[in-house]
Amino acid sequence: MTTVSGTSSTATTDTTAASTSGLLTDYNLFLKLLTTQMTNQDPLDPMDTSEYTQQLVQYSQVEQSIQQTGSLKDILSQLSSQQMSQASSYIGREARFDSPVSGLGDAPAHWTYYVDGTPAAMTATIKDSSGAVVNTVTLDPETQGSYSWDGTKADGSKAADGAYTFAVTATDSAGNALDTTINSVAIVNDVVTDGTNIMLGVNGIRMSASGLVAIAAAGTNIDN
Q1: Quick check: is 224 in a domain?
Q2: How many helices (H) and strands (E) does the chain have?
Q3: Distance in angstroms (rounded) separating the CA atoms of residues 48 and 33
Q4: Which of 56, 78, 105, 166 has its CA 20 to 30 A from that of 3?
Q5: What mean pLDDT is reported for the chain?
């Protein structure tokens, strides 16, 4: 399944765990060496402990930071679980995302678009995940607002399932380019997390829940 957005926290977690383990090992070694030196020092010529005391304070601060980091991880984990629970209510509902990327799978890829102005001519371009154009269509300026694509390419063949990007070029009667806002629309099939981000499975791809702009009951007109 294609993931459109979101990052994995695995590498960060592994790095943090390795750093924490190293700090704790150094801290314990320092305490052991300090205790040994103090135990075996010459009573007639005691060593200056000011430097060791300063280092001990620094290591103590590091240890406190490690403990705080662990507590923060626990809090974030609980928040992630709560977010997952809340996001599960999206399953079976129709979601609209602030993204020109839509999935082509069991259902056609579906987009909504809004042109800022009064268009006289509009052309839509559909690209695959590699950026290659798979189809170009002429849109009716009088019925703008929504477009569904069943995967039929320009040569008449059927496009493979996956993520596709929709772009609209619109001009007014004077030939001036008009700005267009594009959203993708699909039914939410499942909810997953990588430990940091909540991802929604929609028509064979995964979209970040942070990109949601609307959610409605399936079958409800969410195009406007």
Answers
A1: no
A2: 2, 13
A3: 15
A4: 78
A5: 82
114, 223, 132: which is closest to 170 by C-alpha?
Answer: 114
Contact 185, 154 (CB under 8 A): no
**Residue 53 tokens, joined:** 């005391």
Helix%, strand%, coil% for the chain, nearest 5: 35, 35, 30
Query: DSSP readout, 134-184?
Result: EEEEEEPGGGTTEEEE-SB-TTSPBPPSEEEEEEEEEE-TT--EE-EEEEE
In contact, 166 and 147? CB cutoff 8 Å? yes
In a domain, 172, yes or no: yes
Count of the separate structural domains present in the chain: 1
| pLDDT band of 95, cuts 50, 70, 90 | very high
Beta strands 146-149 and 180-193: pairing type? unpaired
Identity (one letter) of the amino acid at 51?
E
- Residue 217: which residues within 8 A CB-CB, separation 6 or more? 93, 94
**CATH code of residue 4:** 2.60.40.4070
Pairing status of strand 205-208 against strand 2-3: parallel
Q: What percent of the chain has pLDDT over 90?
A: 52
Q: Does residue 223 fall inside a structural domain?
A: no
Q: For 181-206, give one letter per residue: b (16+ CB within 10 A) or e.
A: ebbbbbbbbebebeeebbbbbbbbbb
Does 222 fall in a domain?
A: no
The pTM assigned to this predicted structure is 0.66
Query: Per the structure block, which two tokens stand in for 118?
Result: 């009064």
Average pLDDT over residues 161-166: 97
